[in-house]
């Protein structure tokens, strides 16, 4: 028995080394002659030569900008044109977001809103959603008529346990390798680009490291089984899947999730970790929790059926990702003629909400070195821990050769415990809640959430800016005092010593710090939370901190979901696809399509390829544009990854926000900024960073994603038999490149193909990414019982509340949570005659949610205090900038209202004869409780 054991371990070591060996450059086949990739042009200004016509976007910040006067028709009874044969009517622009392309294509669609005050757009009602369409079917490799070889039919639990024991010694040898690396001082050096990638970007908690490292036992067991019994890759999943982990000696390597209890199911609030968001049957591992696996649209394509990255169809190595990146990707600026840069930024913001892949770490939680610090490959022995698949850089790489770099760090994503509790191929781990629940702001578990709270009046911790006192418009995220990452800029960049106060920000997801644009867009949500919590406290003085926090969080998540489905998704996947899948937001009423059988978890294809479409939209510079829409300056991305300093300067956050709204966005194409393809996470002074395109391609292989052709079929396109069959969705020059680089049309990687597809009309992405992204957002809607417009759930809003939520737009959030004074109503769309910059005080054009429907039944008159002279005031009157509780006798207009007392349309108060009243009570609001009192409550919108 012992002998059998020893032999098994030795054989396994040998095989594992073989499996790992594909990481080394010597195993890459000879690749096409070296001069196949012209040097990437880096000049940013390029206009498509085919037409010779400049894109017709309005680029106001480039010259001295004066707002274009928009000529609006005089209000008439009926002046909106038909759009696509449908009757349209004048509405606030955010209600026309899903129609925007059709509105632009139809003349005469700018209009004056009914009250004659605001500018709006003509558009039809939001179309009725298509009939129920099911998400992709769960792939089951054993369903596909795979016959097992007779010798594997007999594999039993004893054999599995033997393999698991062998796997344990494999684990020990892996840990020994990791220790040896540390002893040899082969580490990922702090401050290097690789360190920023592996440690700062791919942050991991001790808990995730523990789970992922212990789930490796199951992986190694299956690998051993496969090798011992020579199980064919296509059979391994069927064989291993017959065994439940809990029946093997590895029963305790994965956590057990408790069933949903009655109390949680009855709560109107989401749990912090998303448990019970999808009510699952008892005993079933819940879906969508942090530190659980991604699901798949297609069964994985691992070379060994377990974890080895995919090989070409003919068994050779696939082309190195950097070669693909060099050959297919260019740095050319082709601005969108209708979108703003915010499409990109919002995409990244919700990406951080939905997912954070766990990258492998060593047993003691440190980044795993995959290359030498000098950019060379490690020896075979040093790589034998098997957690690396470093990226080969061609010897004559036009960029990296200048720096003698041959090896790009790439640690594999960590394995996750499988949701089915069985043995099988590797699944990757998402560390965040999979749901669209603002976990990037609030955190994905109770511990992080608690660290971010003040536990006072429902608010989140902030860094309050000096001199601005109690004003959310200036608050920043609190500093992250637990990190040793330095988010300040060096003297070499700024000419001054790094200020001490500059820290990385602390949030639900640490990638908030990745760029200043990201900081700015998330800070708006932070401030909105605290603003909403304040107002709820004023409306409901009897609510305690917990209630205020949860109610504000529930509202914020609903606002974010509304923005996502109303403003963002129509741009990315197009209105038609949304209608087909039932994803269009409703104009009124509730949706009823929650289905507990729909798995809301993030698809591996979405995380590792499709939703990375946004990388093509990233501009190389981030612009600071002032209130007059004049560009003041820009910052170069390579100097500002994980540098927050710019956002500390008062006023800069506003300028970044205006930059996001003003700079035209990019198109999804094979054009990427060099800031990402040569300078990602560049270490200061080095001159080079990493290549995000190479990382994305390698990540797809690491996660076992099948080739692009398989996804064409999944998405309803015909399978390409030959390369020229791809001409249906690719430009000829891309097909030529693919044909040159790949030996089979089945080999093409999903990411590089997805970004190179011609966009679907009315959408930003091509048909394959469109179909994967649409399926994901269908799951996130239908598999979430807290989805904001659902009826009949414990967390459902009342119709009145829901109608207020529907008033949300990102432009309004910016207006209310920054010092930006004017903005276009559709933040995701470039400023234009249809989407002109409007005063933030124009509540008709940029409506504001009113929180009054959240006021609970009046708790009695005791909430009012009466001063000596009879002036009534509320003890909870504690508005932005002022606490009017003390100077009652000398109240004047400026003191008893909001800071914006003298501005038009503001819900301000004024005083007369000792009574403080609303300055200007609009029609229909005369009955509000705040009349004739100082500030019983402050309606959110008047
Ligand atoms: C300056 C902007 C951005 C930077 C620096 C950046 C950087 C990165 C990096 C380094 C990765 C990990 C690559 C790897 O697998 O090793 C990544 C992953 C990803 N990025 Fe971006 N990205 C940016 C913008 C965006 C945008 C705009 C989107 C979407 C619209 C996006 C979506 C994603 C997704 C979905 C992933 C996978 C995340 C995960 O697995 O945890 N990114 N990005």
Automatic annotation (TrEMBL):
InterPro entries: Haem_peroxidase_animal, Haem_peroxidase_sf, Haem_peroxidase_sf_animal. One of its GO terms (biological process) is response to oxidative stress. Heme b binds at residue 615. GO terms for molecular function: heme binding; metal ion binding; peroxidase activity. The keyword Iron applies. It is found in: Secreted. The keyword Lipid metabolism does not apply. Residues 1-21 form the signal peptide. Its main location: secreted. Keywords: Glycoprotein, Heme, Iron, Metal-binding, Oxidoreductase, Peroxidase, Secreted, Signal. It holds the Pfam family An_peroxidase. One of its GO terms (cellular component) is extracellular region. This is Peroxinectin.
């Amino acid at each position: 028995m012992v002998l059998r054991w020893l032999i098994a371990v030795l054989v396994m070591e040998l095989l594992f080394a073989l499996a790992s060996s594909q990481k080394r450059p010597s195993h890459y086949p000879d690749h096409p002659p070296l001069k196949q990739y012209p040097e990437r042009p880096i000049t940013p200004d390029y206009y498509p030569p085919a037409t010779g016509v400049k894109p017709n976007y309005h680029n106001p910040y480039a010259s001295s900008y004066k707002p274009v006067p928009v000529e609006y028709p005089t209000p008439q009874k009926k002046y909106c044109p038909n759009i696509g044969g449908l009757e349209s009517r004048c509405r606030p622009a955010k209600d026309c977001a899903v129609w925007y392309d059709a509105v632009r294509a139809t003349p005469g669609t700018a209009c004056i809103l009914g009250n004659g005050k605001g500018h709006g757009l003509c558009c039809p009602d939001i179309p009725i959603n298509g009939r129920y369409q099911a998400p992709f079917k769960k792939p089951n490799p054993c369903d596909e008529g795979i016959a097992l070889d007779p010798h594997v039919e007999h594999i039993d639990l004893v054999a599995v346990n033997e393999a698991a024991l062998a796997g344990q010694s494999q684990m020990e040898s892996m840990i020994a390798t990791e220790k040896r690396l540390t002893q040899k001082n082969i580490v990922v050096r702090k401050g290097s680009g690789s360190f920023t990638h592996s440690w700062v970007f791919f942050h991991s908690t001790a808990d995730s490291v523990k789970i992922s490292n212990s789930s490796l036992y199951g992986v190694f067991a299956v690998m051993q089984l496969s090798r011992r019994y020579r199980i064919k890759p296509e059979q391994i999943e069927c064989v291993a899947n017959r065994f439940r982990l809990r029946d093997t000696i590895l029963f305790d390597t994965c956590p057990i999730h408790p069933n949903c209890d009655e109390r949680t199911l009855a709560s109107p609030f989401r749990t912090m970790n998303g448990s019970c968001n999808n009510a699952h049957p008892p005993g079933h591992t819940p879906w969508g929790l942090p530190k659980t696996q991604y699901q798949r649209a297609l069964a994985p394509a691992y070379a060994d059926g377990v974890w080895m990255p995919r090989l070409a169809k003919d068994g050779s190595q696939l082309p190195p990702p950097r070669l693909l990146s060099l050959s297919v990707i260019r740095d050319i600026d082709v601005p969108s003629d209708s979108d703003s840069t915010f499409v990109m930024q919002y995409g990244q913001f919700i990406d951080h909400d939905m997912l954070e892949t766990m990258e492998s770490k060593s047993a003691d939680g440190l980044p795993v070195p995959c290359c030498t610090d000098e950019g060379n490959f490690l020896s075979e022995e040093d790589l034998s821990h098997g957690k690396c698949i470093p990226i080969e850089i061609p010897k004559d790489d036009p960029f990296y050769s200048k720096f003698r770099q041959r090896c790009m760090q790439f640690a594999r994503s960590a394995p996750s415990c499988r949701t089915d509790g069985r043995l099988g191929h590797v699944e990757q781990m998402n560390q965040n809640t999979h749901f669209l629940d603002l976990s990037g702001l609030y955190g994905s578990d109770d511990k992080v959430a608690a660290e971010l709270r003040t536990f006072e009046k429902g608010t989140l911790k902030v860094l309050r800016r000096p001199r601005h006192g109690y004003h959310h418009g200036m608050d920043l995220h609190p500093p992250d005092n637990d990190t040793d990452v330095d988010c300040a800029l060096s003297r070499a960049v700024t000419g001054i010593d790094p200020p001490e106060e500059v820290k990385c920000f602390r949030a639900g997801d640490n990638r908030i710090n990745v760029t200043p644009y990201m900081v700015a867009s998330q800070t708006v949500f932070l401030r909105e939370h605290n603003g909403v919590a304040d107002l709820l406290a004023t409306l409901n003085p009897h609510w305690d901190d917990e209630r205020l926090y949860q109610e504000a969080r529930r509202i914020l998540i609903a606002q974010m979901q509304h923005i996502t489905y109303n403003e963002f998704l129509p741009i990315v996947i197009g209105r038609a696809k949304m209608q087909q899948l039932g994803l269009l937001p409703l104009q009124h009423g509730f949706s009823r399509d929650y289905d507990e059988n729909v798995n809301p978890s993030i698809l591996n294809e979405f995380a590792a390829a499709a939703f990375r479409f946004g990388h093509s939209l990233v501009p190389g510079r981030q612009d600071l544009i002032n209130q007059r829409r004049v560009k003041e300056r820009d910052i170069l991305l390579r100097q500002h990854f994980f540098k927050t300093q710019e956002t500390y300067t008062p006023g800069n956050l506003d300028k970044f926000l205006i930059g996001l709204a003003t700079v035209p966005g990019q198109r999804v194409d094979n054009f990427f900024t060099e800031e990402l393809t040569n300078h990602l996470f560049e270490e200061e002074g080095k001159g080079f960073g990493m290549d995000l395109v190479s990382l994305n391609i390698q990540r797809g292989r690491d996660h076992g994603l099948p080739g692009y052709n398989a996804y064409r079929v999944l998405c309803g396109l015909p399978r390409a038999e030959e390369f020229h069959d791809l001409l249906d969705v690719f430009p000829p020059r891309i097909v030529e490149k693919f044909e040159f680089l790949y030996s089979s049309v089945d080999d093409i990687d999903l990411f590089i193909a997805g970004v190179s597809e011609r966009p679907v009309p009315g959408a930003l992405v091509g048909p394959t990414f469109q179909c994967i992204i649409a399926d994901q957002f269908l799951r996130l809607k239908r598999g979430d019982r807290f989805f904001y417009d659902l009826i009949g759930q414990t967390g459902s809003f009342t119709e009145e509340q829901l109608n207020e939520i529907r008033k949300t737009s990102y432009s309004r959030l910016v207006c209310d949570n920054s010092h930006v004074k004017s903005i276009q109503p559709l933040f995701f769309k470039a400023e234009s005659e249809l989407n002109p910059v409007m005063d933030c005080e124009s509540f008709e054009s940029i409506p504001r949610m009113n929180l009054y429907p959240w006021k609970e039944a009046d708790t009695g008159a005791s909430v009012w205090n009466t001063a000596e002279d009879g002036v009534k005031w509320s003890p909870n009157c504690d508005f932005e900038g002022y606490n009017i509780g003390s100077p009652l006798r000398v109240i004047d207009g400026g003191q008893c209202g909001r800071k914006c007392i003298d501005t038009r349309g503001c819900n301000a108060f004024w005083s007369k004869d000792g009574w403080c009243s609303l300055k200007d009570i609009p029609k229909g609001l005369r009955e509000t409780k705040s009349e004739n009192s100082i500030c019983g409550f402050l309606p959110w919108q008047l």
